[in-house]
Design brief:
Order of helices and strands: HHHEEHEHEHEEEHEHEEEH
Radius of gyration: 23 Å
Structural class: alpha/beta
Protein name: LysR substrate-binding domain-containing protein
Organism: Streptomyces rubiginosohelvolus
Keywords: DNA-binding, Transcription, Transcription regulation
Number of strands: 11
Family: Belongs to the LysR transcriptional regulatory family.
């Protein structure tokens, strides 16, 4: 029978994800020569070529991709086993490490932790790490966190066998106007009514994409007057009358006295937030309780 070495399979999967032997070695705290040797041994064990030269780099063969398709089921089952063993050894408390983007920490993660603490049973020990999507999923893949929160637009696809995704909420986007804005009290305000205004949003990244997409759906391209990424800076610029901005309701705690927040009932722009765990880990008692608490907290933004 063919010998399947889980450790070597993880190295092969990391090479697929990272692209080069050097990057794989860095991710796994190994030397490049050790990575190459382990993969050579795995190829001998399986009796197939796993890598082929492509210039100065290597690429995975079709046989390697076939092996990994089956290996993902093994990894998922091992996650389930580890989750159940953790539950057996620690009860339902345990530890859950969460990576979340900046506005999700105060709006979702902290209330979820409070919910767990207020329950009848002791809740898991939740460790929080602020991270945007790219870093969060790297940490999740590497096993450095157990759960990641991100915008759906920057999450892996549902077809990615490494992760299980859980939609949490559609976060409404409200428009922030300075108190003296001519439309601050206008009934039935729509995004299109602000087409001639100067806009404030990030120069790149998800918030730039979300703002421009929402405005384009309303029929105009926003004129970017100022570029800022943090909500404190964005709302300070709005308060000073320097422009208008779309603000997620999850960031409402940053609201300022001289800023009017208007709900866009006609346009109803949203950004979607999801939670992700390594496939199979959702069956662990501690992770399951954190997911439940996050889901209950997310309902407050409906």
């Amino acid at each position: 029978m063919t010998e399947w070495d889980v450790k070597k399979l993880r190295i092969l999967r990391t090479l697929r994800d990272r692209g080069t032997v050097t990057a794989t070695a860095e991710a796994l705290l190994m030397t490049p020569s050790a990575v190459s040797q382990q993969l050579t041994n795995l190829a001998k064990q399986l009796g197939v070529d796993l890598l082929e030269a492509q210039g100065r780099r290597v690429r995975l063969t079709d046989a390697a991709h076939l092996v990994l398709r089956h290996a993902e089921a093994v990894f998922a089952q091992l996650e389930r086993a580890e989750a159940e063993l953790t539950g057996y050894l620690r009860g339902e408390a345990g530890e859950v490490r969460v990576a979340a983007f900046s506005t999700a920490v105060p709006a979702l993660v902290v209330p979820a932790v409070r919910l767990l603490r207020d329950g009848d049973r002791p809740g898991p020990d939740v460790r929080v790490r602020e991270a945007e999507a790219a870093q969060a999923y790297e940490l999740l893949t590497a096993g450095e966190v157990d759960l990641a929160l991100s915008l759906a637009a920057h999450a892996p696809t549902a077809r990615d066998p490494r992760f299980s995704l859980f939609p949490l909420l559609a976060d409404p986007l409200d428009v922030a106007l300075p108190v003296g804005h001519p439309l601050a009290d206008a009934p039935g305000l729509r995004l299109a009514d602000l087409a001639a205004d100067r806009w404030i949003f990030g120069g790149s990244g998800p918030w730039s994409e979300i703002t421009t997409a929402a405005c384009e759906a309303a029929g105009f391209v926003p004129e970017q007057a100022h570029s800022a990424a943090g909500w404190t800076a964005i709302l300070a610029l709005v308060e000073a009358g320097m422009g208008v901005a779309l603000v997620p309701r999850m960031a409402a705690r940053e609201r300022r006295e001289d800023v009017v927040m208007r709900v866009l009932e006609a346009d109803r722009p949203r950004r979607h937030v999801v939670a992700a765990v390594r496939h199979g880990a959702e069956s662990g008692p501690a992770v399951a309780r954190v997911l439940t608490a996050l889901t209950e907290t997310a309902r407050s933004f409906s």
